[in-house]
Amino acid sequence: MALYVQKFGGTSVGSVERIEAVAEKIKRFRDEGHDIVVAVSAMSGETNRLVALSQAISNQPSPRELDVLLATGEQVTIALLCMALQKLDCDAVSYTGTQVPILTDSAHTKARIQSIDTVKMRRDLDAGKVVVVAGFQGVDQFGSITTLGRGGSDTTGVALAAALKADECQIYTDVDGVYTTDPRVVKSARRLDRITFEEMLEMASQGSKVLQIRAVEFAGKYNVPLRVLSSFEDGPGTLISLEEEDIMEQPIISGIAFNRDEAKLTVLGVPDVPGVASRILGPISAANIEVDMIVQNVAEDRTTDFTFTVHRNDYDKVMKVIEQVADDLGAVEVKGDNTICKVSIVGVGMRSHAGVASKMFDALASESINIQMISTSEIKIAVVIAEKYLELAVRTLHAAFGLSDESLV
Amino acid sequence: MALYVQKFGGTSVGSVERIEAVAEKIKRFRDEGHDIVVAVSAMSGETNRLVALSQAISNQPSPRELDVLLATGEQVTIALLCMALQKLDCDAVSYTGTQVPILTDSAHTKARIQSIDTVKMRRDLDAGKVVVVAGFQGVDQFGSITTLGRGGSDTTGVALAAALKADECQIYTDVDGVYTTDPRVVKSARRLDRITFEEMLEMASQGSKVLQIRAVEFAGKYNVPLRVLSSFEDGPGTLISLEEEDIMEQPIISGIAFNRDEAKLTVLGVPDVPGVASRILGPISAANIEVDMIVQNVAEDRTTDFTFTVHRNDYDKVMKVIEQVADDLGAVEVKGDNTICKVSIVGVGMRSHAGVASKMFDALASESINIQMISTSEIKIAVVIAEKYLELAVRTLHAAFGLSDESLV
Question: pTM for this structure?
Answer without folding.
Answer: 0.83
